[in-house]
Amino acid sequence: MRTFVLTILLLLGAASACVHAQVNKRYFVWVGRDMVMENRYREAIETLNILLRADPEAYEGYFWRGIAKYNLDDLLGAERDFTITLAKNPVYTMAYQFRALTRSRMGNYDDAMKDFQEAIDLRPDYPAPYYSRGVANILTQKYAEAVADFDMYLRFNSRDADGYANRGMAYLNLRDTTAAYADFERAIRTNREYPRGYLERGALYMAQQRYDEALADFDRAVACDTTYTAAYFNRALAHYQKHQLREALADFDKVLELDPTSSVTYFNRALLRTEVGDYNRALEDYDNVALYSPGNVMVYYNRAGLYAQLGDFQAAKADYDRAIERYPDFANAYLGRAAVRFMLRDTKGAEADRRTAERKIAEYRSRLTESGGESSYADTARRFDRLLSFETNLSEASLRNAVAGSEQIALRPLYKFTLRNTQEPLFGLQSVYNTYGLEELLASLGNDKVAFSCTDTDLPADELLRQQAAADTGSRPETDWKTHFLNSITQLLLKQYTNAMTAASAAIALEPQNPYLYLNRSAIQAEMTDFISSMDSEYSHLSLESDRSARMREASRTYNYDEAIADLNKAAKLAPELPQIYYNRGNLLALSGRFPEAFADYSQAIRLDPLFAEAYFNRGLVQIYMKDTRKGLLDISKAGELGVSEAYTVLKLYGGGADPSATHDETE
């Protein structure tokens, strides 16, 4: 069918090319626009390409092609087409409007705001830019500005329930609950079949503990839209507050029928099933939480408690082990494992866990006294069995494992010395990496498994133990720095951090002018820091409402890598042209929350090695995190070109995003 349509268009164009050229161009624009309106975006792009090849000055062709790309999540391509449109027609208001929307979706709010202002300056009576800028102001937490924008929008479009609901959200974030309530009321009066108005007013009732009124609103929201998961979820919480557990379970069941991957719903249903004594099905729910949010510590902690309650102490211990592995400062998990070990007649292990828990609690209280810090998993006074709100995302969401939303996108790891059966070629310019004698160093160690890489070891655990035994019984004397260097590598792989640090320091004491030794010790120190660092916040919060203002509200987590960075500073003095030093330091600065400095170090690594794929990738992630998404994606695209396969996952992810004005795409 598509081929048939394009053939007809071509024939029509050819038949009257000489006499009606302008009419045919307008016809192509009309057909492309019609295809966009019918959601036939790929066909629209093909059709508009024909027009633009014939007439490169047809600015409307670029505009509608940009709309098609926007809806296909090709945001960089859309932005480029809108920019070309404006270069050819600087007063085309809708191009500013949609370029602003595109830039908002890419996180480039500064430039988006400039475009919204241009659109408003050109057409002060045109309502769409006020609406879209209002949403962008909510996303950037400029709530007073958002209220002003929705005031203007509603002057022109006073019958739009969505405008009132968004202004109500802005008022709510300004803690003006009276104005928020009034706007949610207006949204409902404006459109009695608009489910979000009831949802937002119901959530406000919930916060005020007016559960009967909240239930009535959630009932109306569900009646308006039987697929509205947020309404079912919130109604379940309201039922729970009224101790109507059967009804709450039924609503959680409905949410999971509509969205079988909702981790927070499985988590809440598991808690509720545990409360009613349905332990086996609660275990099934925890299994699903572990499947969809494997990095979350609470699933293992709660499931361990349930196993212990059922008398399966081995399974309980395994889950406590997993919880402690993910967060070594989780005092409650040590206490739980101590109880389980006592039941397994491991009194020595139980006592060790009890002492560890007491130490963690004392350290936590000391930090709390000194800094007034947030509560953490070392706080035994906290409860971990409360139902969570719909805005809770169970996945970890720090830069180390999720730069965007709930997707697991990690920085490419540090370069360090490791052991591998399969030697992988280094990315980048080999001559750069060999400047400071890397090949000679590896050859001199007498172990062909030693590699300098940012990938993990591929040796099984028993082989690592054999490698450690060989290092312990090696023929080199203790005065040979290479003995200590090899020992530091195997100890790190076995996660014996103290031993690894001791060995690395001994090697440096014997060979203080070798930059690779400082780089190696820095990597050990960084990994040890990761292991012992406490978690600053339990969850990131993700708004999952169906409105256009859904976004990640992250609580950034930072770490103290000062000692590891100090070793890299020493290495840089000894080997100022070695790009991995700046790459590794960039990683540690990024994980410390020092993003501009991290960007500078990645840039230096790229200057020294223009083919350094991982440096492009990580610099791209840092730029995305700093909201310079366009440049970040360009860097990630370059990383993919150079061989980092994860780059395409990121590009695909960032092609999407919340559309801040999907139903307000008015055209001129």
Summarize the structure.
The protein has 668 residues and is mainly α. The protein is built from 33 helices and 5 strands.
Q: Nearest-angstrom radius of gyration?
A: 29 Å
Which class of secondary structure composition applies to the elements? Answer: mainly alpha
Shape: flat
Strand content: under 5%
Q: How many DSSP helices?
A: 33
How many strand segments?
A: 5
Characterize the largest beta sheet: strand count, sense, and whether it forms a barrel.
3 strands, antiparallel
Mean pLDDT figure: 80
Largest sheet: spatial strand order: 1-4-5
Low-confidence residue ranges: 1-23, 371-375, 395-408, 534-558, 656-668
Distance between the termini: 30 Å
Helix content: 55-70%
What does this structure look like?
Helices cover 66% and strands 2% of the residues. The chain is an all-alpha fold and 668 residues long. The strands form two sheets. It has a three-stranded antiparallel sheet, with no helix packed on it. The protein is flat. It starts with a helix and ends in a 14-residue tail after the last helix.
Essential attributes:
66% helix, two-stranded antiparallel ribbon, flat, mainly alpha, single chain, 668 residues, three-stranded antiparallel beta sheet, disordered C terminus
Q: How do the strands and helices of this protein lay out in sequence?
A:
Blueprint (H helix, E strand, L loop, with lengths): L1 H14 L5 H17 L3 H14 L4 H13 L3 H14 L4 H13 L3 H14 L5 H12 L3 H14 L4 H13 L3 H14 L4 H13 L3 H14 L4 H13 L3 H14 L4 H13 L3 H14 L4 H13 L3 H14 L4 H13 L3 H25 L20 E2 L22 E4 L10 H4 L4 H7 L5 E4 L7 H12 L8 H13 L3 H14 L4 H18 L7 E3 L9 E2 L8 H13 L4 H13 L3 H14 L4 H13 L3 H13 L4 H9 L14
Antiparallel strand pairs: 1-4, 2-3, 4-5
Helix pairs in contact: 2-3, 2-4, 3-4, 4-5, 5-6, 6-7, 6-8, 7-8, 8-9, 8-10, 9-10, 10-11, 11-12, 12-13, 12-14, 13-14, 14-15, 15-16, 16-17, 17-18, 18-19, 19-20, 20-21, 24-25, 25-26, 25-27, 26-27, 27-28, 28-29, 29-30, 29-31, 30-31, 31-32, 32-33
